[in-house]
From TrEMBL:
Keywords: NAD, Oxidoreductase. It comes from the Bacteria. Belongs to the UDP-glucose/GDP-mannose dehydrogenase family. This is UDP-glucose 6-dehydrogenase. It comes from Micrococcus endophyticus. Substrate binds at F161, L162, R163, E164, K216, F261, L262, N263, A264, G265, G269, K357. The active site is at C272. Transmembrane segments: none annotated. One of its GO terms (biological process) is polysaccharide biosynthetic process. It catalyses: UDP-alpha-D-glucose + 2 NAD(+) + H2O = UDP-alpha-D-glucuronate + 2 NADH + 3 H(+). GO terms for molecular function: NAD binding; UDP-glucose 6-dehydrogenase activity. It is an enzyme of class 1 (oxidoreductase). NAD(+) binds at D35, K40, T91, T127, E164, K275, R364. InterPro entries: 6-PGluconate_DH-like_C_sf, NAD(P)-bd_dom_sf, UDP-Glc/GDP-Man, UDP-Glc/GDP-Man_DH_C, UDP-Glc/GDP-Man_DH_C_sf, UDP-Glc/GDP-Man_DH_dimer, UDP-Glc/GDP-Man_DH_N, UDPglc_DH_bac.
Length: 470
């Protein structure tokens, strides 16, 4: 009995938890996924993934069918059965505030603590403000002491760094494993759970609870800063000319800087980077360190200004085209004033992409969806197509016109916006698309199209971070 492989539970079966559960069964463990949402549990039990993630449906189905992976809404069942409880519930931004909402983590830990009647390990994976793990550890001890429950329960923190779209790969072959502990029992058990990663020489960082919590938010804050850094330079090249992609390539050759995450465009979104930089600022302010993360307010501002830029550029491009059509000398290029927005009224605009990034159906804090909605609000006739994101976007902004194909989206368009760099959009045929639109005008919000190749087919393609000269 002592030497059998640990049984694992995963509390919270959203993006992180469902992926972790399926990947842990792939590593050979028996896994029980737990969630308070009965519908989610019913779908997962049938082998269905409730969101879009390449490779995950196959993995889930295999292990659900083999019986190695099961799901339940009963946390007490997990408490009795599992040796290790991973907690991957959400920590969203509080409504109307910048801090993280910890009610789900608190509730998950409280219900676990009150139900475990044996030796066990609780391993937090959710992204939390520094200090949360130590507070939760004390709470677990208190709840258990008050209830007089048998068994030793230790709490560890093991942050998750997976990216949407690469969730399975990032979980099975992570860049590093970070394990924060405040005791001696967690580490050997987790070394056993992650034996395959250790055998593959994955860096193993064994540390305290606070460092483990901070590594996660530091990584996301750095990534967000990198994106806003290049996007700030976009504001310069948009004003004076120059090529933002070449600039990124050139500085990226310096290994200390690195080229990745220096793609200029409409900015970052999603359920992690935006809320994590806000939660970090809120947390350090609570700690009395008001100035420490103030630069992240700039990172956030630069990021949000990219959306203004796309809307301004749409106004400029349409105005210039209409003036040219009337035979007037076009004289735009400066910042568009409020009245310029008139040109958007009734304009047929195709929006390609509404998810926050490709290979995901996630529209949380999506720059693309925000831009589409702003154009609609300004009176434009916006037609949206996203390979996976239409349904989630429609749930948020039902009044936009969502269509099932690229062709329907661009048909009759006066202006086309590429806002999420799905492969299908990168590979568009300028001649075929050109035959459908009303005007061959495109704003490339992700700098993925070959401007010269498109120009050969009569297109004007304006990339973000490039000067627009009408
Ligand atoms: C991010 C981190 O990359 C993961 O390591 C982390 O685990 C995750 O958050 C999380 O905290 O759960 P994710 O939100 O899936 O992952 O997406 P990213 O690939 O980081 O992209 C974030 C946003 O930045 C996207 O909107 C993307 O379009 C944008 N981006 C990315 C750029 O605008 N430019 C770039 O060069 C790179």
């Amino acid at each position: 009995e002592q030497d059998r492989a640990p049984r694992l539970s995963v509390i919270g079966t959203g993006y992180l938890g469902a992926t972790h559960a399926a990947c842990m069964s792939e590593l050979g463990f028996e896994v029980l996924g737990v969630d308070v949402d009965p519908e989610k549990i019913a779908r997962l039990s049938r082998g269905e993934v409730p969101f879009h993630e390449p490779g995950l449906p196959e993995l889930l189905r295999t292990h659900v069918e083999s019986g190695r992976l099961r799901f339940t809404t009963d946390v007490a069942e997990a408490a009795r059965w599992a040796d290790v409880h991973f907690v991957g519930v959400g920590t969203p931004q509080k409504v109307g505030e910048s801090g993280a909402d910890l009610r789900y983590v608190d509730a998950a830990l409280a219900s676990l603590a009150a139900a475990i009647d044996r030796d066990a390990l609780i391993v937090g994976k959710s992204t939390v403000p520094v200090g949360t793990a130590r507070r939760l550890a004390a709470m677990v001890r208190r709840v258990r002491a008050e209830a007089g429950l048998p068994g030793e329960v230790e709490l560890a923190w093991n942050p998750e760094f997976l990216r949407e779209g690469f969730a399975v790969k990032d979980t099975l072959t992570p860049d590093r494993l970070v394990i924060g502990t405040d005791g001696t029992r967690a580490e050997p058990v987790l070394r056993r759970v992650y034996a395959r990663q250790l055998a593959a020489d994955t860096p193993w960082i064994s540390t305290d609870l606070e460092t483990a919590e901070l590594v996660k938010v530091a990584a996301n804050a750095f990534l967000a800063t990198k994106i806003s850094f290049i996007n700030a330079f976009s504001e310069i090249t948009e004003a004076v000319g120059g090529d933002i992609g070449t600039l990124a390539d050139a500085i990226g050759h310096d290994a200390r800087i690195g080229r990745r995450f220096l793609n200029a465009g409409v900015g970052f979104g999603g359920g992690c980077l935006p809320k994590d930089i806000r939660a970090l600022q809120a947390r350090v302010s609570e700690l009395g360190l008001d100035r420490t993360m103030r630069f992240l307010a700039e990172v956030d501002d630069i990021n949000l200004r990219r959306r203004d830029r796309v809307v301004d550029l749409a106004v400029q491009v349409l105005s210039a085209a209409r003036d040219a059509g009337r035979g007037e000398a076009a004289a735009y290029g400066g910042k568009t004033t409020g009245s310029g927005v008139e040109v958007l009224r009734g304009a047929r605009i195709a929006v390609l992409g509404v998810t926050f990034k490709p290979d995901s159906d996630d529209v949380r804090d999506s720059p693309a969806l925000d831009v589409a909605n702003r154009l609609y609000t300004a009176g434009a006739d916006v037609r949206v197509h996203d390979p996976e994101g239409n349904a989630n976007a429609a749930a948020r902004f039902p009044r936009l016109d969502y269509v099932d194909s690229l062709e329907e989206a661009v048909e009759g368009a006066e202006l086309t916006l590429l806002l999420t760099e799905w492969q299908a959009f990168r590979e568009m045929d300028p001649a075929a698309v050109g035959a459908l639109v009303d005007a061959r005008l495109l704003i490339d919000g992700r700098n993925v199209l070959d401007v010269a190749a498109w120009a050969e087919h009569g297109w004007t393609v304006v990339g973000l971070g490039h000067r627009f000269d009408p």
